[in-house]
């Protein structure tokens, strides 16, 4: 699979279980200027909710990826540019490192040409993803850097994802992950609510991921984060 994310500054994570702001449509979502849409989510995600988002986005030319939270919700749809499958480096339950992945590969016919993984380092203990995966979120900057290096060097990961979902993360820890990587792309997601947050994380990562803001405040707010991520990266 080629690595389109190498050119991205910003990704919008659409939770299929959450509504858009009143009056906004996926046409507006696709016009925010984001570089790609990841259809993700943790709780209550079903494949028909996924399909609804895919159908609403398929007529636009924004790259569209599914980030499946478990094998049962993987949607087989040519409208998807591909799948970005999390591997949770600091999960307390091995199911979220290789267990679910083994089951997916055992029962499904995976399209490896369109499938890549994201080596997640989950750092917000309040996030659903932390609870679901029993993640050990107590990681210092040198721990985070070491996980990033293991992901790239030992596990050959192209994407490392520092996940603070629901809160703005510690910039030092994000920078530590970024400094530990040679070729791999660092995604940062969590609590980005405005231009300044996006700029701050754009300076320390390669791709800024925005999720809840879309559902809480809408597309204009998201547009601000696209600018902030771009400007922060350009200032590096
Ligand atoms: C092997 C396959 C096909 C799937 C398993 C993939 C894995 C390891 C999933 C575990 C991590 C996970 C649940 C990722 C889903 C995307 C994500 C991080 C959603 C954000 O969830 P939160 O923001 O914590 O939840 P809410 O915002 O919904 O409360
Ligand atoms: O919802 P937020 O806090 O923006 O986080 C985005 C993404 O990292 C969630 O997986
Ligand atoms: Mg969330």
From TrEMBL:
Q: Which residues are recorded as binding sn-glycerol 1-phosphate? A: 13, 161-166, 191, 211-212
Instruction: Report if keyword Amino-acid biosynthesis is assigned.
Output: no
Known catalytic reactions: sn-glycerol 1-phosphate + (2E,6E,10E)-geranylgeranyl diphosphate = sn-3-O-(geranylgeranyl)glycerol 1-phosphate + diphosphate
Instruction: Please state what class of enzyme this protein is.
Output: transferase
Against Pfam families, the record matches this protein to: PcrB (PF01884)
Gene Ontology CC terms: cytoplasm
Stored Gene3D superfamilies: FMN-linked oxidoreductases
Required cofactor names: Mg(2+)
Where in the cell is the protein located? Answer: Cytoplasm
Q: Which GO terms describe its biological process?
A: glycerophospholipid biosynthetic process
Q: Where does Mg(2+) bind?
A: 15, 42
Which terms in the Gene Ontology molecular function aspect does this entry carry?
heptaprenylglyceryl phosphate synthase activity; magnesium ion binding; phosphoglycerol geranylgeranyltransferase activity
EC?
A: 2.5.1.41
What does this chain do? Prenyltransferase that catalyzes the transfer of the geranylgeranyl moiety of geranylgeranyl diphosphate (GGPP) to the C3 hydroxyl of sn-glycerol-1-phosphate (G1P). This reaction is the first ether-bond-formation step in the biosynthesis of archaeal membrane lipids.
The protein's name in its UniProt record: Geranylgeranylglyceryl phosphate synthase
Lineage at the top is: Archaea, Methanobacteriati, Methanobacteriota, Stenosarchaea group, Halobacteria
């Amino acid at each position: 699979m080629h690595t389109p994310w190498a050119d991205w500054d910003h990704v919008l994570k659409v939770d299929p279980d959450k509504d858009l702001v009143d009056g906004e449509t996926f046409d507006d979502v696709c016009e925010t200027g984001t570089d790609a849409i990841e259809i993700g989510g943790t709780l209550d995600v079903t494949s028909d909710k996924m399909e609804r988002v895919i159908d609403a986005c398929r007529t636009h030319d924004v790259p569209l990826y599914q980030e499946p939270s478990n094998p049962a919700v993987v949607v087989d749809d040519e409208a998807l540019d591909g799948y970005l499958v999390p591997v949770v480096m600091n999960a307390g339950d091995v199911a979220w490192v290789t267990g679910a992945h083994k089951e997916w590969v055992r029962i499904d016919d995976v399209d490896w040409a369109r499938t890549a993984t994201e080596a997640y380092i989950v750092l917000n203990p309040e996030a659903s993803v932390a609870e679901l995966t029993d993640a050990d979120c107590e990681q210092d900057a040198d721990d985070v850097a070491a996980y990033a290096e293991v992901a790239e060097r030992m596990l050959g990961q192209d994407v490392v994802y520092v996940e603070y979902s629901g809160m703005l993360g510690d910039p030092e820890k994000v920078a530590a992950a970024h400094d530990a990587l040679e070729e791999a792309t660092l995604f940062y997601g969590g609590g980005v609510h405005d231009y300044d947050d996006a700029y701050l994380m754009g300076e320390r990562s390669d791709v800024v991921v925005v999720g809840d803001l879309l559902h809480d405040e809408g597309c204009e707010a998201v547009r601000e984060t696209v600018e902030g991520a771009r400007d922060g990266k350009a200032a590096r």
